[in-house]
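quick one, two chains, predict together pls
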Amino acid sequence: MLARRERLLGPNTPIFYDNPVHLMRGEGVWVFDADGKRYLDCYNNVPHVGHCHPQVVEAIARQTATLNVHSRYLHENVLDYAEQLTATFDAALSCVVMTCTGSEANDVALRMAATATGNRGVIVTDHNYHGNTTAVMQLATLLPHDLGQPAHMRTFPTPDSYHLQPSEQTLEDMAQRVLAGLDESIESLRQSGHGLAALLVCPIFANEGFPDLPDGFFEQIKKRVRAAGGVIIADEVQSGFGRCGSAMWGHQYANFEPDIVTLGKPMGNGYPVAGVVCREDIMHSFRHNTAYFNTFGANPVACAAASATLRVVQEENLLDNAMQSGQYMQQKLELLSERFPVLGDVRGAGLFLGSEIVESRESRAPDAAHGRALINAMRDEGVLMGLIGRFDNLLKIRPPMPFNREHADQLFETLESVLARM
Amino acid sequence: MLARRERLLGPNTPIFYDNPVHLMRGEGVWVFDADGKRYLDCYNNVPHVGHCHPQVVEAIARQTATLNVHSRYLHENVLDYAEQLTATFDAALSCVVMTCTGSEANDVALRMAATATGNRGVIVTDHNYHGNTTAVMQLATLLPHDLGQPAHMRTFPTPDSYHLQPSEQTLEDMAQRVLAGLDESIESLRQSGHGLAALLVCPIFANEGFPDLPDGFFEQIKKRVRAAGGVIIADEVQSGFGRCGSAMWGHQYANFEPDIVTLGKPMGNGYPVAGVVCREDIMHSFRHNTAYFNTFGANPVACAAASATLRVVQEENLLDNAMQSGQYMQQKLELLSERFPVLGDVRGAGLFLGSEIVESRESRAPDAAHGRALINAMRDEGVLMGLIGRFDNLLKIRPPMPFNREHADQLFETLESVLARM
């Protein structure tokens, strides 16, 4: 099967685990392979309300059987969904463009920012990935590409609460270094003539390793971006739809208001739907300067899928569950980390948490090889998880949102037994 | 509803007809509005095998209820579909990347071309639109945008068989002028240092107005592109999956072999799925230089939808139908054009045909206003069609593929009565 895959799809297509999993079926927080073996899914955020949630399946099946066309005819689904969606944002974020992927959403958002500000420059972290279109991928520093670093791009240092610099004592010290780096990049863009169009950032720095941040961190970022004439694009592809537990959106959890928000992965529980939410003035300048049309974006099935997903998040109180399960899991993970010094720390929020795999608690030296061995061993024991972060050594626990205490108990029992014998 | 739309989606979102259609349901070649009024769909190519085709609906519903995850696990659907798909191409076009939209497909194809050739330059027609990502949209000359013309882009003259230049007598004369324009652009890219990476072109020049072409036209283009070290990307988003009747792919109909082929709209009968098919050497250089991953691309539901769509195309002999219905419709349209001189000509292939709306047969002067009045009147009479081409005056008849003689009779009876009273 791997040979067939390489012949048809080419070499180097990304795949998980030394012994890849051949999946056949999913249900809630569970997936099943070709031999019927069951895995506890602690990784996937796309099946946000659970694999094959019956209400989302039903909504997709019903609308697919009824009508599926582009949005140059009138249809109520897109309007109903846009209202339901924007109702979860602060009042100023009132307009929506639907796309098919988070990559397309970030691509559009960058264009909106340039049009709205009259500037070209974009600032991202120095360990970022926001999508695969050329305009977005060329900003990526986390994955290899041959696009070069564009002249209008600058970076700022990734906040890293676990690896403070020698001169730093507190998170506030770390924040000041990050902000100084941001100031430098803003100044460099000014001097280059590009100016600042946008800071594009995930409100929880998900790919960067979801560091702890001092209070008011993003307000300080926002002040600088605004002063330079730019806007903030919050990439909520990972942090959105209640993932952090205490709020529907990562920027609400991080306590700041962005100008543009991009959405993706969890939005339709697997159906390819994504979008951009922004202020009215930004939407107007975009729509008056660019004839944007997306054939599959805003189609009635995409909207039905997204609407059903949002309804389940709300009706099943999945934010509460993320909050409570997340807190329970943090406690369990902390207990484990006291026994196994390979677990360097515990961090995260809601149902997005993890621990750095390190050589020792004292050195805090990342041990990515140990991390890889760990997630491969967990896979063999029927638990799916991943690694992320600056050093590829951060255990990523980011399960479907209905993940509960019972599931957590199974995860940590397995993790304990694997750690005990490694 | 329009006010609600503008408030939520912003101004200037594209919409069809002076009196927009509020659609509720689709079935085969028919769609139904909120009042239950039935429309004959002579426009939509996304519901390729017919609106809500039961076999595609069933495939999507079944797979959505079974499993829908990203492609970093193993799943057979993507491999099965890649085999079914590449079997319809010449042997050299053997590798596939799945994306969600035709825009993403063209975005990837341009990157592949740059990596494979070591050049940057791209040539498109002077009346082109190939998609909405920044990298693709900035090449567009057909729709307004504020991205500017990139330094690595050149155009060549759109072939226009109906509006020959004063010096031209034959299609071959027209072709020589187009090829001279291409030579100029290739030379200009060479001098600029960009060199030629790709000529990106629709094999039937769909957006340009599907002109008649002399035999061997694309072979002459290909010779020049190859000599300059570039590759040809055939954008089959509109021309593919049997649309031209006599062949599965537009490039087969146009009798040349491209290096890269991009697919979109009709691929999953409305499910957001698209892709790139290319030679093995091109896929290898791409995959070794760029870490491309698309979360929703190649998901099991997308592949199930695409596989079911391809199966219906083959099992229901929709190429034959496109061929026969298309020929029948050309005859009917020619008979009409003899009676109504506002119909300037008849052209197209398979189920993609049309006629230029002109002020007079002698002047051939485009009459876009008359064209708009015509399609609006047709809409009121229950027939949906569009306009396209260099002067926005070309009737576009591009129905779902099961469109048959009976449907054609209704279309032309309505067209006759509308023309008679205009």
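Residues 32 and 38 of chain A are 5 Å apart (CA to CA).
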